[in-house]
Specification:
This protein is of the alpha+beta class and 148 residues long. Helices cover 24% and strands 31% of the residues. One of its GO terms (molecular function) is MAP-kinase scaffold activity.
């Protein structure tokens, strides 16, 4: 999630001033509805939502106009893929409370990625973490809450 998506409209679907377009992403367990921004009469853009798993979802481009029913203009598939941010978020969630997991930070210190890359990865891991399916009793300290 959190990437820019551009939608190219067909000649028949060019953007009129009183039409509002939005995208509906339908996955196996979660549905997202996102607004769009008109770039020009033939293009829209939005930000892809974060999702709770890696899967292919159905995306419907919908149009609404006051006084008219909502129309599904087009449908397409969209794939949420597993990346290093998703892997890192799962690793961190699984290793909560595990002192040995801190060795991962030593790896980052040794590899010394550029600061901009670390900031970008941090943002992506935080986004992925927000969408992980975690048990209600999960916490950052793990099972042993006596750690300081």
């Amino acid at each position: 999630g959190d990437s820019v998506i551009t939608v190219q409209l067909t000649e028949e679907d060019k953007v009129e001033d009183d039409v509002v377009f939005y995208l509906v992403f339908t996955g196996s367990t979660v549905q997202h509805c996102t607004s769009t921004r008109k770039i020009n009469p033939g293009s829209l853009e939005t930000i892809s939502p974060g999702h709770d798993c890696c899967e292919t979802v159905k995306v419907a481009l919908c149009a609404s106009r006051e006084g008219h029913p909502v129309l599904v203009v087009a449908e397409e598939s969209f794939q949420f893929v597993q990346d290093e941010a998703y892997d890192a978020a799962q690793f961190l969630a699984t290793c909560a409370g595990n002192q040995q997991a801190l060795n991962f930070t030593r790896f980052l210190d040794r590899s010394r990625p550029p600061a901009a890359d670390v900031d970008f990865l941090d943002e992506k891991v935080a986004l992925a973490f927000r969408h992980l399916k975690l048990p209600a009793e999960w916490n950052v300290l793990g099972a042993d809450q006596s750690l300081t």
